[in-house]
Amino acid sequence: MMASSDTEPSAGPMEPLATHLAKARRQYQQWLDRVTPFVLYRWLGTAGLLALFMLRIIFAQGWYIVAYAHAIYLLNLLLAFLQPKFDPSLQDDLLADDLEEGAEGTASPLPSQRDDEFRPFVRRLPEWQFWLSATRATLISIVCSFFEMFDVPVYWPILVVYWFVLFLLTMRRQIQHMVKYKYVPFDIGRKVRYGSHR
């Protein structure tokens, strides 16, 4: 027969570290759960971190590559936030392929006519993930700005001009996509309450 000490796995030298990591993960998740309903304050905190990072870059006169990579990542997050989860252009391509093969068409995720059923706009990147990813990226960028190995010498005006050109081209393409498929990723206008006569 085995002794009771043989049935339990022996506690290795990494056991206390794993316990502390699990406790830290739980506390981090509890903090995230507490801040979830406070959308405005979350974004104000992220804007404050972003301002802190920008001040760090301006006063340190360096780490332009880190700032550029951070800006490109934020632009990527913004584009994913503005796009629908199911791209209607891909649905049109699939619908055209199905019709060529003789199959019946599937319903589009966005209404295409006035009589279509209302379908709410579902983002490819939800607001919560957008905020969390942007905040993490900003914190990582701040940390990177304290290490000399990330301070690559570069002529920063070229990066700024290139980023603005990239921003304008991608946003123009996104706006054309929104106009073509008739969707708006924001709640604009007055909210209508049913049963209200005002």
From TrEMBL:
PANTHER family given in the database record: PROTEIN RER1 (PTHR10743)
Name the UniProt record assigns to this protein: Protein RER1
Keywords, ordered alphabetically: Membrane, Transmembrane, Transmembrane helix
Transmembrane segments: 39-59, 65-82, 154-171
Entry annotated with the keyword Transmembrane: yes
Record organism: Trametes cubensis
Coiled-coil features, chain-numbered ranges: none
Membrane topology: Multi-pass membrane protein
Keyword Aminoacyl-tRNA synthetase among record annotations: no
Main subcellular location of this protein, as a coarse class: membrane
GO cellular component: endoplasmic reticulum; Golgi membrane
Family to which this protein belongs: Belongs to the RER1 family.
Cellular compartments annotated: Membrane
Annotated function: Involved in the retrieval of endoplasmic reticulum membrane proteins from the early Golgi compartment.
GO biological process: protein retention in ER lumen; retrograde vesicle-mediated transport, Golgi to endoplasmic reticulum
